[in-house]
Automatic annotation (TrEMBL):
InterPro entries: AAA+_ATPase, ABC_transporter-like_ATP-bd, ABC_transporter-like_CS, ABC_transpr_LolD-like, MacB-like_ATP-bd, P-loop_NTPase
Alphabetized Pfam families for the sequence: ABC_tran
Protein name listed in UniProt: ABC transporter, ATP-binding protein
Annotated source species: Hyalangium minutum
Record family assignment: Belongs to the ABC transporter superfamily. Macrolide exporter (TC 3.A.1.122) family.
SMART domains named in the record: AAA
Keyword entries, A-Z: ATP-binding, Nucleotide-binding, Transport
PROSITE patterns found in the cross-reference section: ABC_TRANSPORTER_1, ABC_TRANSPORTER_2
GO cellular component: membrane protein complex; plasma membrane
Length: 234
């Protein structure tokens, strides 16, 4: 099945009187349960594509479908709840709440959906154990390394068991080895939970093991490569 797709999508940003064309007619579809990396040079439109696939922004023209839902057709309110229900995000800069512990950061997204506080705690704790942070539940972000913070961010993105997790350059602020460990951990989560992962990166480590690699340049898809199949020029 298809986890998410963009059909003939354009995205323009208005900068004063100037129009920036970030995406120039992109079509792509992401298979359920896959680990897909969107790569390409800086400014090529990776973050924009990820924001649209994550329902954080709307296209200028074209269609965006997530889990079979045409998300452009939803009202703002419906879209917000759709996003909260189906999607998880991991950002380059971790975006953790500094005054909360690791456990509290991961519990936070469950506030609105899980009534029982003990259940919230238990689910957050299990997810932190799954990312290898079972002994660091009470630490605040400042008391964790960059790699550990990003693991907390992955746990937070996954605690609601979303169908789709999006990560914008998740290894950008990590050293090579920590980045490789994070990638391995995300792949394990993807396999065990059958979660679809879409990441943007120009980190070759992250590109290597991808089920599918989509290369964007200047707002267009220039290459799609599926694992163990020859390059398909587009
Ligand atoms: P930047 O955004 O810094 O211009 P790129 O995304 O062009 O960087 O490439 C960064 C690194 O990722 C390079 O080492 C390049 O070889 C590798 N890379 C980029 N795209 C691909 C790809 N489609 N397949 C394999 N490696 C890639
Ligand atoms: P990437 O993630 O590949 O670096 P982006 O999607 O961030 O690329 O940006 C694509 C293009 O859109 C760039 O030219 C960038 O300057 C522009 N852009 C991105 N976000 C905005 C914005 N909020 N306002 C104006 N221009 C933007």
């Amino acid at each position: 099945g298809v986890a998410a797709c963009l059909q003939e999508v354009t995205k323009e940003y208005q900068l004063g009187k100037t129009t920036v064309q970030a995406l120039r007619g992109i079509s792509l579809s992401i298979a359920v349960g896959s680990y897909t990396v969107i790569c390409g040079p800086s400014g090529s439109g990776k973050s924009t594509a990820l924001q649209l696939l994550g329902c954080l922004d709307m296209p200028t023209t074209g269609r965006v479908e997530i889990a079979g839902q045409d998300v452009v057709a939803l009202s703002d309110k419906a879209r917000t709840s759709f996003r909260a229900q189906h999607l998880g995000f991991v950002f380059q800069n971790f975006n953790l709440v500094p005054v909360l512990t690791a456990l509290e950061n991961v519990e936070y997204p469950l506030q609105l959906t899980v009534r029982d506080a003990a259940e919230r705690r238990e689910r957050a704790q299990k997810m932190l154990e799954a990312v290898g942070l079972g002994t660091m539940l009470q630490r605040r972000p400042a008391e964790l390394s960059g790699g550990q913070r990003q693991r907390v961010a992955v746990a937070r993105a996954m605690v609601k068991r979303p169908k789709l997790v999006l990560a914008d350059e998740p290894t950008a602020n990590l050293d090579r080895r920590t980045g490789a460990e994070l990638i391995e951990m995300m792949r394990t989560m993807q396999r065990e939970h059958q979660t679809t992962f879409i990441l943007s990166s120009h980190d070759p480590q992250m590109i290597e093991g991808a089920d599918e690699r989509i290369r964007i340049e200047d707002g267009r898809v220039v290459e799609r490569v599926q694992r163990s199949s020859p390059a398909l020029a587009m």
